[in-house]
Every structure is written in C-alpha cells, then in structure tokens.
Amino acid sequence: MKQNVVIVGAVALGPKAACRFKRLSPEATVTMIDQSDLISYGGCGIPYFVSGDVSDAGQLQSTSFHMLRDAKFFKNAKDIDVLTHVRAVSINRSRKELHVRHVINGKEQTLPYDRLVLATGSRPKRLPIPGVDLDGVFTLSDLGGAVAIKEVVAGGKVEKAVIIGGGAIGLEMAEALADLWGIETSVVEIADQILPGIVSPVVARMGQHQMEENGIAIYLKEEVRRLEGDGRVERVVTNQRTLEANLVIMAVGVSPNADLARDAGLDVSSAGAIVVNEKMQTSDPDIFAGGDCVEIMDLVTGKPASFPSGSLANRQGRVIGTNLADGNAAFEGAVGTFVIKLFDISVASAGLSLQKARSHGFDALSVFVVQFDRAHFYPEKELVYLELVVEKGTGRVLGVHGLGGMNSGLFARVSAVAAVLRYRPTTADISNLELPYAPPFSSAMDVLNALGNTAENTLRGKNRVIDADQFADWWMKREKGDTLFLDCRGWGNAEEFVKKYPRDWKSIPQDELTARMAEVPRDKRLVLICNTGVRSYEAQITLDQMGIHDAYNLQGGVAAIKKWGLDLLPSDVSNNG
Amino acid sequence: MKQNVVIVGAVALGPKAACRFKRLSPEATVTMIDQSDLISYGGCGIPYFVSGDVSDAGQLQSTSFHMLRDAKFFKNAKDIDVLTHVRAVSINRSRKELHVRHVINGKEQTLPYDRLVLATGSRPKRLPIPGVDLDGVFTLSDLGGAVAIKEVVAGGKVEKAVIIGGGAIGLEMAEALADLWGIETSVVEIADQILPGIVSPVVARMGQHQMEENGIAIYLKEEVRRLEGDGRVERVVTNQRTLEANLVIMAVGVSPNADLARDAGLDVSSAGAIVVNEKMQTSDPDIFAGGDCVEIMDLVTGKPASFPSGSLANRQGRVIGTNLADGNAAFEGAVGTFVIKLFDISVASAGLSLQKARSHGFDALSVFVVQFDRAHFYPEKELVYLELVVEKGTGRVLGVHGLGGMNSGLFARVSAVAAVLRYRPTTADISNLELPYAPPFSSAMDVLNALGNTAENTLRGKNRVIDADQFADWWMKREKGDTLFLDCRGWGNAEEFVKKYPRDWKSIPQDELTARMAEVPRDKRLVLICNTGVRSYEAQITLDQMGIHDAYNLQGGVAAIKKWGLDLLPSDVSNNG
Q: Is A420–B420 a contact, with Cβ atoms under 8 angstroms apart?
C-alpha cells in the first residue's frame, strides 16, 4: 500500500524523518508543511550566523555539498513535497485529516494522512514585563528572527546590547555581539550563576571569569523589571540597575509547542510536552512526534524530561522515519549533554550537575580535578578542569562537566562519559575507563581516570576537599586568623605567596612534611595547596597519620583558583604582560 | 599488622601500585627493585624524546610539577625504598622471599615479603637474522636504549635509517628520525599494510600515504633477511632490495617477561604471559602481577589477551595498590585502544579491526564514512574518516578505527566508542550515541551517528558499498570497459573528470537522476561517486527502484580515494600548489 505521510514542521526533525522514510519507502508520498519558507536549517548555528562566522543564512540551510535545502531541493533530490508559509490548524484524528491555513493568503486546506508527524518544536519564552514589544527586543525563535537581528547589528546602530538570560543561547549571543561587532554587551541572569542547572557554581564562575576577561559584563541574581524606550528600546531596568541598550535579546528558555497535539486530544505532560513512547508514537499510534515538542526519558533520573536539542531531534527523526516504514526503531532517551564555546575556551557537560542531582533526590557529592589533557612531558598541552557528580553509598556516576581550552580534549572526555552514563557506571568504571593513549593525545593516567580515582577517595573519606568557592570565602575571612594556608609545593612556587602573606601562608613542601611536622600548627584549620591538588592530597594523608585532621585539600589547587578569577599575586599578572 | 611489600619493576605499574598502597597503608613498608636506575618514566614518550619534542630524558622521568622521580624522590615524598641496579633472580614462595642480585657488584640478597608484585614488563622481540648484534642496531627496550639512540642521532653521523616494523612504535620512530633530524628513513614491514591488526587496509593505506608524503619510504610485504656491515651496520637486506642504513631500529613487537613467574611455578599462559584474576592476583594469592607481563580479559572477544600499554599498566597498578591494602578493586579487562600521531594527522582505534574480528570467528563486515567533524557550516572543520566493524546478524559493534587531523575530534569519537564497547552496543546504539552538540565541536547528526546509520543500512542490504581499495582495483582495470563511474555530484564537480575520462566517467547529479534515468546503461557495473558517499547512496536507492542493482556506492567518495593517495586529476594538484 502506498503510504501517505504528512509532517508538520520542516526545520530539523521533520526533514530527517521525511528523508529517512523516503529512502526506505521510495513509493510513498510525503508532504511537509512549515509556517516559514526558511526550512531545514541548523538552528544551533544561529549565533555563528549573527557573529559573522557563518556569512549568510543560506549556509545554515545548505547541505554539506552546498545545495540549498529549499522546497525545490526536497522535490528534486528527495521526492518530498514541501508547503511553505502554511500553518497547521487542527487535526481530525477520526478522519485522519490535517487542516492547514496558508499564512499569506489565509486560504484553508485539508491534507489527508495515513500517518502524521508532529515536529512543531518549541518557542522562546517571553518575560511578562513592560516593554517586551518595543522595537529592538528580540527572542531567538527561528532563522527569520536571526536574520532580523543581524540586519539591526550590521546596520551599525547598536552600541550597547543586553542579553537577558545567562544560559547557552544567551552566552553564545553575547560572544557573537561582542567579539565581531564590538558591541558593549551585558548579560543579566536571575540565578546566582551562569549556565544554571548545567554546571556547578565553580565551573560557572570560571566561565564567567572568561566572559568578563573578554569584555562581557555579567550581572547575576538580577531580575529584569521592565524595558524602556520610545518605540525603540533604550534601557533595561533590573532590580539593581538600569542598563542602556539599543538591542535586547531575551534568551530565557523555551516552551514546547504542543497546542496542536493537545487540541487533538493527544496526551500532553504536565510540563506541556507531547508524550511519546520509545517508537516516538504519541497516544495515537498513527501520529508520531519528536524534537523540542516532546518529552523523552532521562536515562540518568529515569523520569521523562525535555531535552530541546537539534541533535537529538535529528536522531529521533531518523527513528520516526524508520518506524513510518514499518521498521522497529527505538529512541530510548537521553542523558543530557551540552557543550559551548566561550571565546577560546569550552565548557561541556553530560548528565546531572550536583544541584540537579540533589533536586532529583540523589544524595550526591561532586569532586573536581585539574590535570593536563596530554602527557605532562609533551610540549603541547592544556589544563582540563573536570567535575564528577556521584551518588554517595553506591558510587554511581550521575554526571560530569568541566572547562578547558578549545583543543584540550574536554569534548572527548565528556563524550566518553556521556556514552556510558546510561549503563550506570560507578567511580571504578571511570577510574578504569579506557581512552586511547599516546602522549600527544592523553595521559597514561588520564584526567578522566584521575577524576574517578578522586571520587572514590572522597567517597571513602580519604580526601577531605574544598572547592574554589569555599577557598575564596575562607581567604576573604583570613583576618580572623583561624586558617593557615599551607603550600605543599617547592619553595620556588611558594616563596612569593609567603612573602606577601607572611602570617597566613606557610611553605612546607610535601616531601619535607614528615621531617618538618613540628612546624605545623595544631590549633588552626589548614588549607592544603599545590598546583593542581595532587601533592596537597599526599600531604593530607601524612597529616592524618600524625593525627591532624582539620586539614582540607584545595581541589584543583592554584590552577583552579586562578581560573576562578582569584588572583593572589596581582602584581605577577602585570609583570607577565 | 605492618605489611611488607616487595615490587619487582619500577617503570609504570610498580611505582603506581607502590604509591597507591602507601597512601592507603602509610604504616606499611614497600621496597621496589629495578635493574636500571632509570625508573618511573613515561615509556610511551620515548619517540618524542628521540625526536627532540621532549628535550631530555629527565622530563620523561619527572612529575607534572618537575620533580625527578628517582630513588630519593620515592624515599622522601612517598616513603618507598627503591633499590636500583638490582635484578630479581628467583622467588621462594614457601619462605616468601625474593632473591635478588646487584647488577654492578654481583652481590646477592634476599628480600622477605608478605606480598610480592611482579611488574616485569615486556622485552622487544629481536629477529633471528644475521647482523642483529652490529653496532647501530637497536631495539626500544627501555629509556636507557632510547638515550643511546638519541646520542647516535644527535652525533650527526646518521644519514639513513631503516625501521623494521610498521607498527605503532616503528611509525612513531620513523617520524621522530625524519621530521626533526632530517634522516632519510625507510620502514620495512612484513605484512601487506602498516599497523597490521590495528586498522583496516584502507585506513592503513591512508596513513601510509601520509607518511610517504612526508618523505618516509615504506616497503610492505618485505622480509628482512640480514643486516650487513663491518662492526657497524651499513645495509639492510630484504627479500626485495638492499637499503643503506647507519641506524636500524627493530620494532617488531614485544614478549612478556614471565620467566621469574614461570620459574616460581606460577601459572603462565601458552602465549607466555602471567595469568592473573580480576584482582590482579597470580595463581599464588600473595603474588600480584600486572602490566605488559600479564594477560587480561579482552572485553570484546571474551578471551584473555596481551595489551601491552603504559596506560593500562597504570590503572592495573592502582588496582593492585588497593588490593595490597586489603581493598576490593577489580580490573575487568580491556577493549584495546590505540592512537598515534603521524605528522599532522592522527589514527585511532578501539576494539577489533575487521581482520582481527574474523580471526576470532566473528562473521563481520565493516563500513566506512567520511564526514566533517563539526557542523558543515562552521568555518573551522576537518574531515574524519571512520570505519565501524560490526557482526552480521546481531548488529553488534566490535570495533571502530579511523583517521583525521590533529584537531578533528577523531580521538573523541574513538574514545566514546571505546567507552561503550564493553557493554556490547549494537549499530542502533551508535546511531543514537549522544555526543555534546554545538557547531564548533560536532554535527547535529555526528559522524559517529552517521557511521551507525550506515552500518545498519549496509547490514540490511540497503547500501551496497565498495571501499577505496576496491575502487582502485576497478579503476586500474577500467580499460576492460565493464564499469561505468557515475558521478552523482553537480556538474561543477564532475566536469573535469568527465573531460579527462569521457568513456569511463559520466555525470548525472543525484537530483536529476530520476529524470535522466534513460541515460544510465543497464549493461555495465556502476560505481556511484560523490564527495563523501551521501548522494551516491541516495542515487543507489533511486537506481534500485528502477531495477538497476549492479551499482556500488563508493564509501567516503572522492574524499576517501584522495586520502588513499589515488589522484585522478593530478594536474589539479600542481595547479593548486
């Protein structure tokens, strides 16, 4: 039987499902509708289009071999009919008909289907505040919106921009505006960190430091109250300050577009996403859905969740395409992965952050390790900053995230953990995780293995740690005199610190600690410090042996606090350049 | 009870086991012996020391914080006694004593132990041919040997070098000699490809092409018969030719050092490696062993195997250290991973190659995909060439390997598959493998996902493929006139090929194929060609629909045959520089 498939939405999942299905069932007919004529584009490329890295919007809409994926392409190369500027209005499930309206002329039309695919995506949230309708205020809803922003920016009239929201899209857009266009850009985030829910406060602080070093102003814990201007936006007013702005981009998250499904009586979750099974079927087995408009299984928490991602949408699209052709493909869920470029560094994550793990009821802790990506004797290398989130008791690994240079292999480490998270690895599995080893690529005991080892030691109480946030707090309060900062490195590294902070900073190299134990005060809290946290851990073991337990290993050592933005020797910086 | 542990071998596993154990049991005594005084070094860094990337041997022997890991360091920083220039002679298991001999003065000594660790490593094989004892003939046995090679090379007397063996160490040494020192270097390999047993012939051919482009001569299927010279080596004589050489390095594999264990009555495998359980205990529970001298479980084949690797040795060392302290750590095995830098490209693998899979009795096939590492619209990107080995019937993934630039993310893709191989993934798991996605790092449908998709299509007979080897064979025989090379790209790409090979090369762009079906000959075998294999796959489906089945998709397209070294438009190359 020649099947007739109709697909609503032609950005990511729709085209993928259509093409896969047609390859398996070339005799079938497929009609794909979209409310725009900009279809089948890489939405995640929008910040790079705005920045100018991608010179025109057509590139986002082209194949790797430079053919524009427009309606004509789908007809000729794929034998798929595309109706552009057409919106779905309603579904008549008993008659198996989709009612649509042509956006431009208002004409209505009925499309019969054997099977229907809903790829309706998501829409950006808009804050319910005064001024959101002023000119110059944008959300990043689609490629059309991005083209509009770029026109404004390229017009040269934008001197100051405010991004509302310090999540992934907000930060990417901030970099895009500031880096190439030289626009004075601020980010306002209501949470107490950037990338909330994705990375830990410490890693977020490191990313923020990076953004600030590149001229982006970041305001945390601030709520935008209103946007002001005369027709065109001029000011952003928060609960703390007023920021001038010729351009405002709201990037405060997305909501699934599930109205069409809800109105047709399909199951929709309390969070407003379409409910689907592993085959990506809705509660009506002849209607499939996928992408940003559905909930899928979170393979770490075991609960359904939204993972808006062009990448997952593509993979779900292929599963739908296979099943439309009566195949038996399954999309079992996602662990949640993330990566972002922030100027010349990268931040990536897989699975749950500590905060998110706790919000899901896990009794969890996290550990933090800093190590070179490659063999430490290999000339080209970069530090990787990695945090592992583990469940106490079971030692189950719940997530990983971190920060590194653009060639630091951070992406590789997070990808490897992402790949195994669904198999419920323990810290021992990370300790023994097998990465290919050669000095130009990795370490014999890779940073990922060291992370597993550190997590195990910490879970077993062998490693009492503090992070850079805690260090900064104790450091600021050092006037109280209850804490001694004990430098476990060689004198050459410690000297300047001791000279600048003679009361608070003491040098005993780790290999001299046993012999010089008498110098260690027993009436103070000790913070043990080395370059990255390895020697300070050894020192802690030696102190434990001598009955000194009020000692805390600074995770990631001096490398971590520097990256965090705490510079204890600021004169050094100016000396070095 | 204060435990007394003796460790034989102080390069990789020995020091790791010792340090881990001492951190867990600071009160214990540990004595580590080694026949050299060069201990605790990164052996995999030797090629980079010889090349000059690592300036002196001490760097390979230093911590990341630049402390030399010599006997004094182990005493002061770790409270571990190291006896250098001491060889183990025999084990008296009933008395729990190790008999040792001081290499320099011949003195014998008995070391009592509660538990013993054998970290005796491996030794390089030496070919049983005349001339192996000539001056200037080396194996890479240890850091001492590397120092000797570098002295010869730095002396400026070496004009021509021959490497015997085209495995990892042979190729790394070839690059080291040729790149920095400008030595005319040849590699002689007895197999019909470089990296035999690790990657497929096609990927090997691409790596070979890279080496040859960088001036290394590679002779395959040649057996070295003898080395000639008067005291000092002057010539290498193979069954095909005579090569002049002032320096010869034999890199033909390693054998485990298991004599000490065998003589003590411990279980040794037929392959000559010490047998251990998951706790890394030998058949005597008080004697542990690990690293190059043991066999561990191959988690893909389910059979014990040797995986000589400094990286695995380190992880096994930690497991032994934990168990010495009455912990309960396990080393479950390895899937086998590999990565190498060849000038400015990288080659990596995890699990089994097709040849190896078949030799283990798997009914397997492999598929090959070429795709950009990052979003194709992102300006900075590189092609990744990946091959997936899968079992027919089950669709189980047995291995992955490939080739890419140094920043192509090849390492990340192979690492992700390496991480999951032990969980017996199927092609569907690779199709849906979740890598973090953002345009500067990956594609929405990543090359790894495309690889899983292609494998599934090929297993189901939807994609009839040929590789670059097969293409080259048919191309060479094109005079027979039985094959038409059908270019599915746009005319702009195809034009030059059609003009140069009017009889054999025909252009029908994939999106015009249905309309121009009458032009397709039905009496010839068709080879379908595009840039990377995507459009040619679509064309194959269209041809299938029209009843034309004698058509084969060139996997990886023109990108693959170019990388392979087959240049069909050589004038182009000179035009481009």
A: yes
